Amino acid sequence: MQPLRFHPGDPRLRRLNDRPVAPHGEFVLYWTQVFRRAHDNAALAYALARANELRVPCVVYDALRPDYPCASDRIHQFVLEGARDMAHGLRRRGIAHAFFLPRTPLEAKGVLARLAARASLVVSDDFPSFVVPAHNAAVAAKAPCAFVAVDDCAIVPMALFAKPESMARTLRPKVLAALDDWLRPIDDEEPRVAPPRDLLLPFEPVDFARSDVRTLVASCAIDHTVPPVAETSGGALEAERRLDAFVRGPLRSFDVDRNDPARDCASGLSPFLHFGMISARRMALTARAFGRGEALDAFIEQLVVRRALSFNFARTRPDHADWCALPAWARATLLSRGADARYADLALGDLEGARSPDVLWNAAMRELRARGVVQPYARMLWGKLPLLWMRTPEQAHAAMVHLNDKWALDGRDPNGYANVSWCFGLHDRPWPARPVFGAVRSMTSASARRKFDFEGYIARWSAAP
To answer: What percent of the chain has pLDDT above 90?
Structure first.
């Protein structure tokens, strides 16, 4: 299989300003915001290739500010554990790495601009969601050199699908037709110029070999009431371990067992995908090597097609986290049912505290708080039922986006926003009208419990604090 190389007009590359490469820059600066891995990283591969071409070192800059939305111990610890693995991997490759951990927002001001002023070229991750697009645009506007964003999100480049796709069936044939061209290992060049011996930095970098992650987290001005997930540590090594366990076991029956709470057939890799600790490409190539038949097809559908659909939604709708990004028919039908009787009148705090009238929904909310994820079938019910309990559908949508962003390890992501909005009609069709839901597909706890044996799931998470 030929490795995937960059070429003129490569759809993975996006110039975000019109400035040339600075001829006397000290280094090529790779600013990693999403793809936190030292190998199989197209953005890093591009930065290294350009650095080798310009005969300068490549410097990897990473930072974790305390003022991103929903900043908490849960997210900080997971990211820092991933950064620790990345630092180790880069050191083994002979690539300079500088991790900045500002404890307050004021400490972070102007640091990246000072590094960009010394660079020949700035490379960053092209990610269409959360704070990344605004960060890229702001730095590119001020950088005195060229700024290139590299897409390594969903295997097939997002730029190939420039128009919004209404549902999976319209995008699926396009993605699958292009998949063999893009589902190949990338050409991971090694650096030809040694890292600088004395890299002067405008901050004190974190030395992960001598630092305790929990102590670092405790020192930051973030929300300390959202705890880390004890069973899920971050990093590329843990991602590889989980991938290996998945393809050797649960993948074999993924098509029939993935929604069954008694089977626990999920890969458990969505948080690692979100934070770039493993690539969708690596997962798909490994699954192809081990899987076959309908089980493999079902996994590729979720990992490749549905992921591409979510990223298409985020890239083509900058307001993708908001109510107004839902299809017009879905908003209209939900708003038209305003006079229908609700079964409760809950506030956001009631939902967050798992104080709904439904025991299965409460179990899902407790699982989210404890594990940072929700069982796949329960997650669909979790997203839909608040329509029955809040005064307006807009409030219900905003509540679910907030809870997912705050508690989910894989929140703040195109997949998360698309999954929540699917519960409100996105990427779906109108169904026969029901009270409250209108023509949006409805679900009930009773039907879920008839379809799968959720009693053990409810018992486990009803006992959770």
So the answer is: 93
Q: What is the mean pLDDT of residues 432-456?
A: 94
* 293 dihedral zone (left: phi>0; alpha: psi -120 to 50; beta): left
Domain range 323-462, its CATH number among 1.10.579.10, 1.10.760.10, 3.30.470.30, 3.20.20.60: 1.10.579.10
CATH code of domain 1-152:
3.40.50.620
Tokens representing 112 are 């990246």
Residues 397, 384: Cα–Cα separation, whole Å = 9
Mean pLDDT of the chain: 96
Q: Where are the domains of the chain?
A: 1-152, 236-316, 323-462
Q: Are 405 and 393 in contact (CB under 8 A)?
A: no
Mean predicted confidence (pLDDT) in 286-314 = 97
The rounded radius of gyration (Å) of the Cα atoms in the chain is 22
The DSSP code for 412 is S
Q: Name the token pair of 148.
A: 């290139």
pLDDT digits (tens, 9 = 90+) for 96-129: 999 999 999 888 888 999 999 999 999 999 999 9
- Contact in structure between 229 and 370 (CB atoms under 8 Å): yes
